[in-house]
Write a structure and sequence with these properties.
This protein has 136 residues and is an alpha+beta fold. It has three helices and five strands. Strands 1-3-4-5-2 form a five-stranded antiparallel beta sheet.
Length: 136
């Protein structure tokens, strides 16, 4: 299992008329954590793109447990539990002071610039295998 964590502060613009974080704002927070995970693995997303790989979202799901509000400090943890194939599944947890706010997931495909499905780049596969303690 590989994890990365980022923290953010809920901005006023991210809240709705009820004073809670608008539900759609959790997906950009997931992206922040996902980019941090790729950085941690030594395969920054920008470098993947320069190499011709894209990671479009195929599926996303969120389960809301508790709301967050303006000025809350939240922690987003992303987990990669299994070696990616042509697809990459990531699980997310959003917490405030240890309290579970949101759980979610995203599924991505590895594709070329013309959206042809491909296997993950070798550098990423090697980094994941190493981090998961698997043989290359």
């Amino acid at each position: 299992m590989i994890q990365a964590t980022v923290e953010t502060r809920v901005r006023f613009a991210e809240t709705d008329a009820m004073g809670v974080t608008y539900h759609g704002n959790y997906l950009p927070w997931f992206e922040m954590a996902r980019v941090a995970l790729l950085d941690q693995l030594g395969t920054p997303y920008r470098e993947l793109e320069k190499s011709g790989f894209l990671l479009p979202v195929l599926e996303a799901g969120l389960k809301y447990h508790r709301p967050s509000h303006f000025d809350d400090r939240v922690r987003i943890t992303v987990t990669l539990a299994e070696k990616p194939t042509a697809r990459l599944r990531l699980d997310y947890v959003v917490e405030r002071d240890g309290e579970l706010l949101v759980e979610g997931f995203t599924v991505h495909a590895f594709v070329t610039r013309d959206f042809k499905a491909v296997r993950p780049p070798a550098q990423l596969e090697h980094a994941v295998q190493k981090a998961l303690g698997l043989k290359a």
